[in-house]
Amino acid sequence: MIKARGLARRFTTKLGPVDAVRGVDIDVAEGELVGFLGPNGAGKSTTLRMLTTLLQPTAGEAIIAGHDLLADPAGVRRQIGYVGQKNGAGADQRAGDELEFQARFYGLSKHDARKKVADLLERFELQGMEKRAVITLSGGQQRRLDIAMGMLHDPRLLFLDEPSTALDPQSRRNLWDHIKQLRTDGTTVFLTTHYLDEADFLSDRLLVIDHGSIVGEGSPDELKNRVSGDLVVLGTPQASIVASKFENAVVDGDKVSFRIPNGDRALPGLLRDLGNIGVELHSVQVHRPTLDDVFLTMTGRSLREDANAA
Ligand SMILES: Nc1ncnc2c1ncn2[C@@H]1O[C@H](COP(=O)(O)OP(=O)(O)OP(=O)(O)O)[C@@H](O)[C@H]1O
């Protein structure tokens, strides 16, 4: 559904050129839900804008939903939906009018447009909201309306840019269910996010981007399995003695952390060995790798810190 090769975008600024995207290859199969994960400024939006014909690449090529991105952008646009970070619906307009107007814009007859709108209102739990001004809808309802607008022409491929930004936890979860349902109903979904939990929950497969280049690819589980081992954190007054026993151990006050494969199974023997040399322990924790660990392993920095810093 997406096959991009060497897609790149350089911006020329007063301070010199900025290589926002440095020649990425992207493959997305029909029916997949692919997450495009990276910290702020990694190049997600720029890539998305190129894939959706909104921005001309400076190098590379792509076939999107069977159409050549450079030679037939109109063909691409007919096949895709795009839901950007800013609301697409006019704030003062009534939700139903916005949907119907857009449906007519796509060439549907009045009758078909009404039918389509009713269907989408139901599908995205917006029944009864059609007469309300967009601005009076909750954040979650507005996001669902945005997605409904993106689905008016039954696109085979839907692009979502940071879908759950600024939503409360309950609305996010509800939105996620709707996004998963899109995939279940047969739409291929490509979404950007800098939230690890969102990427983990939604994606069949993840592409991780940093500084304009893809640094990792795989299912959330595959990526987690690539991180070498579980993180063990031991609390002990003899932290430096414990640290000397493990490669790459990090001491932080009275805590020692290190990674070992199959931490939960290895731990009993390890604790016995430490007991045998007289080490006293007052706490033991084993953490399975998270996507943040994956990101840290790949890039040397924490995605969470980056996201929080934004
Ligand atoms: N129009 C532009 N002119 C100059 N530089 C730009 C332009 N658009 C983006 N950039 C730069 O390109 C890089 C990638 O930006 P991009 O918006 O694609 O990142 P992102 O991963 O989507 O981040 P965010 O999560 O903040 O949207 C950043 O360094 C950004 O400052």
UniProtKB/TrEMBL annotation:
Localization of this protein: Cell membrane
PROSITE patterns documented for this protein: ABC_TRANSPORTER_1, ABC_TRANSPORTER_2
Sorted UniProt keywords: Antibiotic resistance, ATP-binding, Cell membrane, Membrane, Nucleotide-binding, Translocase, Transport
Membrane topology type: Peripheral membrane protein
Domain ABC transporter: 2-236
Family: Belongs to the ABC transporter superfamily. Drug exporter-1 (DrugE1) (TC 3.A.1.105) family.
Any GO molecular function: ATP binding
Official protein name in the record: ATP-binding cassette domain-containing protein
